[in-house]
Specification:
Layout (H helix, E strand, L loop, with lengths): L2 H22 L1 H31 L5 H30 L1
């Protein structure tokens, strides 16, 4: 095992111990959970605001790009299927 793996293992062990100590107190664990919930709600609100702003400015949003990506993947798959059929026809 290399130095890199040893350091990674030690860092993982240290972070695990720190989390155990942090979560040992129920009140502290609840406070951490509430803080994480607040951060997640804040991120969701920021994402919604960003999407609304992008739409208001007539720019493509992240969800628009994802939708186009899915459609493009479907088209690529369909193109491969058609290409295979054409090759099959050409061999006959």
């Amino acid at each position: 095992m290399g130095i890199r793996q040893d350091l990674k293992k030690q860092a993982l062990g240290a972070s695990q111990k720190a989390m155990e100590k942090l979560m040992a107190d129920e009140k502290r664990a609840m406070a951490v959970a509430q803080a994480l919930g607040s951060v997640q709600r804040g991120k969701q609100a920021l994402d919604r605001g960003q999407e609304e702003l992008m739409r208001a400015l007539n720019f493509a949003t992240r969800s628009d790009f994802k939708a186009v990506g899915k459609k493009l993947s479907g088209l690529k798959r369909r193109l491969r299927e058609l290409d295979e059929k054409l090759e099959e026809i050409a061999r006959q």
